[in-house]
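seq as requested:
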Amino acid sequence: MKSVFVPAVLGAAAIALLASASARAADESALAKAKNCLACHTVDKKLVGPAYKEVAKKYKGQNVVDKLAEKVRKGGVGVWGQIPMPPNAVVNEAESKRLVQWVLSM
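struct tokens:
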């Protein structure tokens, strides 16, 4: 009886975890839209700036959340070419870290 109950509990926990992750991703996607990030970026193709998946690939395994969060707020140029990323003054530090973590999770 235990062998039947334990997998059911684990299965329910896994479903809850996946639902929670999906809800967080939707929240971060909405935040990116609200903060105008999607004017220059998309998830899977280059627009003005690089695709989020390309950013995640480039920085995979690196501890760059603080560095990239600052770049979101202050802007930058040169890493992805000569088109500058303008500063995003409407994004605060906590929001920029959430956005960067979301991008790096792709």
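Residues 41 and 49 are 5 Å apart (CA to CA).
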